[in-house]
Amino acid sequence: MKKGEKIIAVLIALLVVVAVGREIFRSKPVDHAGEIPFYTTASDELKLRASELYKDLKCRDCHRLWGVNNIMQFVPAPSLDGIGSLRDEEWLYTYFSAENPQALLKSRLKPEYRMPSYANLPEEDRRTLAKYFASLKVKDWYLDEVKRMEQEKLTGKSSSHE
Ligand code: HEC
Fold it and tell me: Residue 48 in contact with residue 56, Cβ under 8 Å?
């Protein structure tokens, strides 16, 4: 190789390294793989009371919580993980107290799959459920991740490449 060719070869190699490196560092958000994005701020007592209600009232037949659902049921109900980042305690209390929950949240499901009314439950139990579900949060980075994925789905490109 002549001296001039060598310099060009080195320059090209450098450009490739820089381009690949930028691609790797630029598009990678912090890696949270394996980390659970959901958490609760509830006291141990509230957790215990709410999980008893959750079990006795068979919420699990339809919903997924902490990644767990009833594998014998296939109701396409929303997952309740992190629901407190979406709904506050008052909203949840009103929802659990509604004679017709579908008036608050429209349903596209068959009647037998829809959210049942818990209006007949003692007030204390509805409060407990509302408090507990309001305490279920999702970490910010997970929301960012979900938004990024939505963006990719909608536009076909990653928002971090803008
Ligand atoms: C028969 C199935 C079924 C059961 C049992 C059930 N749910 Fe639901 N739930 C649903 C469906 C489906 C929705 C979505 C709205 C709809 O389609 O009616 C929903 C909606 C919700 C929502 C609102 C979610 C959102 O996106 O805002 C909460 C909170 C909730 N349920 C909590 C509970 C709790 C707590 C229990 C037990 C006390 C329970 N559900 C029992 C089917 C069920």
Answer: no
